[in-house]
Amino acid sequence: MLTTISLSLLVQALINGLLLGLVYTLISLGLSLTLGIMGVVNVAHSTLIMLGSYLALELLQRLGLDPIISAVIAVPVFFLIGVLLERLLISRVARTSQTTGLLVLFGVLVVIEGAAILRWTTDTQVLSVSYTNASLTLAGIAIAVPRLIAAAIALVLVWLLDTFLRSTLYGKAIRAMAQNRDAARISGIDTDRLSLLVFGLATATAGVGGVVLAMIFPFDPQDHYRWLAWAFLVVVIGGLGSIRNTLLAGLLIGLIETVSSVLFPFQYVYFIVYLLLVVALLVRGQGLAGSQSRAL
Predict the structure, then answer these.
(1) Cα–Cα distance, 179 to 177 (Å, whole number)
(2) How much is the pLDDT for 243?
(3) pTM of the predicted model, to two decimals?
(4) Residue 45 and residue 224 in contact, taking contact as beta carbons nearer than 8 Å
């Protein structure tokens, strides 16, 4: 049932939705890349996000490093993890059935989750820094500082990745591989090396996504499943492999979630978001991309 809200509350919801949407975009980028370019359904994506959150926790507790610095450190660390996963596992099952690949990646999910439980237990963790409870007030609208910083990190990474894919030689080669892998190989493009790069980048974005999530949400080793569902939702609505459409889908879902939460009772919010997924699949088939081909 609709509730009566003030203009200021609606504006507050819109701002929070945009900030949250940028975070949703970031945690979905890696899945969009692996699905759209490599055709790999990485069900272990959310555990990599979870590891990013725990990296931020460890660096804060042991070295006193701010999560902003942890986000920078996460890029090379998780890029290397992605390269190792692709070389040791993904490349070995790439030419087998998709079911085999799913089983292998599900095994990775189980191993990472189990190791995280052994290391950090199932207790819920929270990153607590000097600005955790800080907020900015503009024209009566309160903006939580952690959400603002998390959204800024997400926006920068989205811009860097989009610029890389559109403006560099490697990026153009990746786009060619996304369109037709066999044709790209015939043209002299080393698709195996590019697959390493793509999976490394996808894993790096997942790691940074985990850091920014930890800045605004509590986390534990078993909480990653909801982020996997949210990432799939963004990717399906946005379209496979499209960075800009993934951004649009993330912003759309963030706005719908926050605005719905003030217009409707809480139990209707997720229903409305998933209804959007059904509509996107029925109307456009390929999400916001609206095309049967992959486009970066």
Answers:
(1) 5
(2) 87
(3) 0.89
(4) no
